[in-house]
């Protein structure tokens, strides 16, 4: 039962934020407990601006990850809904332009999905034994979006096995029959499995492999009674502005309750608390002075220059995709890198599993736009880098970041169809990147582009040493001269 003073306080927030976000804040706070809304002193506007920028960069990947969690495991009405927590589901085909569960998806490997609730007990995942020449990988991602571990070809080979995925509080002994125990730093985690598809006729083989993926609670694996269940979570519905405005901070507070503070973030947590950002706190934008509200909004806007600075380094090949994805230890808490990784390709793989080379500008550093130009991507003989799984070049719409619909239903070119391409007399390979067909004689090498801005990603799965050490450099996207 709310007291009169509390009702007035809630009404004030309702009037300011509107019914939708108000409902979200109530969910974040729980049934009747708002949590800690106090701070010792309000930060000065300059301090608030700096803290807001830092917290936004820190929280963006987590909020983007939450959007996927909500669509796939909570909202049963979503086109992208997959299954409840702790139930593994499989996509029966590769991604198409209709799939919008994540930006920049690959279309080489049908996905399998598992959102895990690890609060009460671990989950045991079974990976089947598969043929030696096929790549499969199980990417384990925590709520921070760190890739904390891997299953599959690179990490454990293709012989399969049973793996125990445990939350931060589990201290049990390793049961018999478990190949490895892998710990998530957060109480919820994601397993994203990719299974290589050789060609369209191979899809039934992939589905047979997918039928061997299993997930079960540890108690079921041990044939023991299940422990008492964890409290029900009231999952807040994502809002359209949650990734671009101060609305992100209530979601960050919500997620942090499932993320025990890492010792390396003690000082960071203390700074965030000055704006009531943190587990158990309520970020009440309306309670700040107008000057502080402006400072918070300006702090979020300030992050844009930092992101653009990293994008320039990407386009100049000064940083690689492998710099943005990995464990907490690997990233050394570089939150800006983690944010850029989430923006250009949420759930990007750790470098040893896959390297990504983005094409966002042409050789003259102009943004790619197929409504204005046709392009060529030329690989000299021997210019394809060493790889131990496969490579692909995939097209994305520059506005939506999703795959591009086209009459051929061709979303990529890859190494499994090397024999179908036409090569130059010197053994070189040229791909034609444009909105219209380059002609029947060149169509085998055509990657259809949208009638407007686009970007492409060249993926190398299980890359060779030249990719890993940075000595291999991608070719440039060249404008075709009339």
Summarize the structure.
This protein has 482 residues and is of the alpha+beta class. It has helices spanning 4-17, 19-29, 45-74, 153-156, 203-210, 218-221, 248-256, 266-273, 290-315, 328-331, 335-345, 465-468, and strands at 89-90, 111-117, 123-127, 136-142, 147-152, 161-166, 180-183, 188-195, 214-217, 354-359, 375-379, 387-397, 412-414, 429-434, 446-448, 454-463, 477-479.
Question: How would you describe what is shown here?
Answer:
The chain contains twelve helices and 17 strands. It is of the alpha+beta class and 482 residues long. Among the domains are: 76-221, Domain of unknown function DUF1254 (Immunoglobulin-like, Sandwich); 353-479, Sandwich (Jelly Rolls). Helix 3 (45-74) crosses helix 7. It is globular. Mean pLDDT is 91; it is low at 1-35.
Spans where pLDDT lies below 50 across 5 or more residues: 1-35
* Oligomer kind: single chain
Q: Class of the domain at 76-221, according to the CATH hierarchy?
A: Mainly Beta
- Helix-and-strand structural type: alpha+beta
Widest sheet: strand order? 1-2-8-4-5
Which overall shape is indicated by the principal axes computed on the Cα atoms? globular
In whole angstroms, the N-to-C terminal distance is: 74 Å
CATH architect. name of the domain at 76-221 = Sandwich
> What is the helical fraction, as a range of percent?
25-40%
Query: What radius of gyration results from the CA coordinates?
Result: 24 Å
What percentage of the residues does DSSP assign to strands (E)?
A: 15-25%
CATH topology of the domain at 76-221: Immunoglobulin-like
Order of helices and strands: HHHEEEEEHEEEHEHHHHHHEEEEEEEHE
Could you describe the largest sheet, including whether it forms a barrel? 5 strands, antiparallel
Rounded mean pLDDT score: 91
Number of helices: 12
The total beta strand count reads 17
CATH superfamily of the domain at 76-221: Domain of unknown function DUF1254
């Amino acid at each position: 039962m709310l007291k009169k003073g509390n009702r007035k306080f809630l009404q004030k927030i309702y009037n300011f934020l509107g019914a939708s976000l108000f409902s979200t804040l109530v969910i974040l706070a729980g049934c009747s407990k708002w949590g800690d809304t106090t701070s010792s002193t309000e930060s000065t506007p300059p301090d608030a601006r700096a803290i807001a920028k830092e917290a936004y960069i820190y929280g963006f990947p987590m909020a983007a990850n939450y959007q996927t969690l909500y669509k796939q495991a909570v909202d049963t009405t979503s086109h992208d809904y997959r299954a409840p927590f702790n139930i593994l589901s499989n996509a029966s085909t590769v991604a198409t332009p209709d799939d919008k569960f994540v930006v920049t998806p690959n279309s080489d490997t049908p996905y399998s999905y598992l959102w895990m609730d690890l609060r009460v007990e671990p989950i045991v995942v079974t990976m089947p034994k598969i043929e030696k020449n096929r790549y499969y990988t199980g990417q384990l991602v925590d709520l921070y979006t760190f890739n904390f571990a891997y299953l599959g070809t690179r990490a454990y080979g293709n012989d399969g096995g049973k793996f125990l995925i445990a939350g931060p509080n589990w201290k049990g002994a390793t049961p018999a029959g478990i190949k490895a125990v892998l710990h998530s730093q957060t109480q919820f985690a994601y397993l994203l499995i990719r299974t290589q598809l050789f060609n369209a006729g191979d899809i039934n083989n992939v589905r047979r492999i997918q039928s061997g993926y299993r997930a079960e609670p540890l108690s079921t694996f041990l044939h023991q009674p299940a422990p008492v269940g964890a409290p029900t979570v009231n999952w807040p519905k994502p809002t359209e502005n949650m990734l671009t405005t101060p609305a992100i901070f209530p979601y960050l507070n919500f997620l942090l309750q499932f993320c025990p503070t890492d010792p390396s973030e003690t000082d960071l947590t203390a700074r965030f608390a000055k704006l009531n950002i943190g587990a158990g706190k309520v970020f009440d934008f309306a309670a700040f002075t107008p000057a502080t509200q402006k400072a918070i909004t300006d702090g979020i806007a300030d992050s844009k220059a930092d992101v653009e600075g990293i994008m320039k380094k990407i386009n100049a090949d000064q940083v690689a995709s492998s710099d943005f994805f990995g464990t907490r230890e690997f990233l050394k808490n570089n939150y800006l890198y983690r944010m850029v990784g989430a923006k250009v390709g949420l759930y990007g793989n750790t470098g040893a599993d896959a390297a990504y080379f983005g094409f966002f500008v042409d050789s003259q550093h102009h943004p790619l736009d197929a409504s204005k130009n046709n392009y060529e991507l030329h690989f000299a003989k021997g210019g394809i880098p060493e790889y131990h799984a496969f490579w692909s070049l995939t097209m994305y719409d520059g506005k939506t970041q999703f795959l591009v619909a086209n009459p051929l239903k061709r979303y990529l070119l890859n190494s499994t169809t090397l024999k179908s391409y036409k090569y130059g007399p010197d053994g070189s390979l040229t791909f034609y990147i444009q909105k219209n067909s380059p002609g029947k004689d060149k169509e085998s090498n055509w990657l259809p582009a949208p009638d407007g801005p686009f970007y492409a990603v060249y993926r190398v799965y299980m890359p060779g040493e030249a990719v890993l050490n940075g000595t291999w450099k991608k070719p440039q996207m060249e404008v075709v001269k009339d």
